[in-house]
């Protein structure tokens, strides 16, 4: 691993930081979530057109920049510093990798170039906890998408796609279906499907241009989960924006009432393919989220250090007191350790991707490949656990050391407290991330698998 940044990586960080400094200050961050989209649409277009942000990690053949997880993680470190409200996480980190990995050629060609250009946003809707579906806080080989008879989101095959009404139209998913007339028990992509159920806490689900919905199909005997493409204006769909703890991460409730849908991918997919790809997406997302949390923690720390140098108590700056110096020094070490872990996780995610160098499995014996793969697989979740703890500590100290002004709505400190708490609910908590990582690597043989806790990640109706 080469820890030095390339000139291109440094340029991405520098350019993005300058742009966000000008257009995404605390006032803009507070105002953007109150719009109907939940983010600053002109700023999103600027980031998409000038910097190619949503396509940073997408292949060039689909209109992307062709970089990797490291570049996207560095970009998200800067968006985390500013708490940028945007559909970047839902679209480029969660949805796009699944479309690229599981969609067939026509679906990828129809969706990924529009995602890379910023024209189309996407959202991943899962009926259970997002952390469990991504394999971050629990094994995702269970019935998190709903049981074989009821619950979650259920998919029902209704016949040929044309008879079901298709999914063409404004969502950009039309024209991506198969051309045959297959009508098999597993539900070929050429068959029409209807979805019924509900998903809460869907990131940017109220404004996304296309929805990726995880639904249970195959009945009780052949139970498995598939992803389906659903148009946001399809008949029978109800999208309700939720009031959330962190307004910079808009969430929605998606209700599906006999909604037409198209499977993502073709008949060659096996029931275990989705679980495996969700795991890989979870590793990638964890690395990016860790970098984002590090950026938020670093800004919270630096703004606190700057403030204690000018705030006076007993006739001298607060920052000159030894107790305050010790607290900030401990916090600095915690943030830097989290940054190192996040950078390693981003590098590791690149090794496990098609763009990696393919050497992650090298070993001196037959078990070397598996050991190296396990190490890479848990690097993201472990880095995310460390980054979430660093952000929570930095945000708490920021409020305390800012004194009375730190408790006001006018100051920016509370925004970072809310981001720390919301991310902890959405993707953590840290002890569950570590417990699942230990379970995946077999660190504690015979240990009881942690039970998943259903939560709406700080969202209420």
Tell me what you see in this structure.
The protein has twelve helices and eleven strands. It has 461 residues and is of the alpha+beta class. The chain has helices spanning 7-23, 26-31, 41-51, 69-82, 88-102, 105-117, 130-133, 271-308, 322-351, 368-401, 413-427, 430-441; strands spanning 122-125, 153-160, 191-203, 210-217, 224-230, 237-241, 243-244, 251-263, 312-313, 316-317, 459-460. Helices cover 45% and strands 14% of the residues. Strand 4 (210-217) and strand 5 (224-230) form a beta hairpin. Residues 161-190, 354-368 and 452-461 have low confidence and may be disordered. Strands 1, 2, 3, 4, 5, 6 and 8 form a seven-stranded mixed sheet that branches. A two-stranded antiparallel sheet has the order 7-11. It has a two-stranded antiparallel ribbon with strand order 9-10. It folds into three domains: 7-89 and 104-117, Butyryl-Coa Dehydrogenase, subunit A, domain 1, CATH 1.10.540; 122-272, Beta Barrel (Butyryl-CoA Dehydrogenase, subunit A, domain 2), CATH 2.40.110.10; 285-460, Butyryl-CoA Dehydrogenase, subunit A, domain 3.
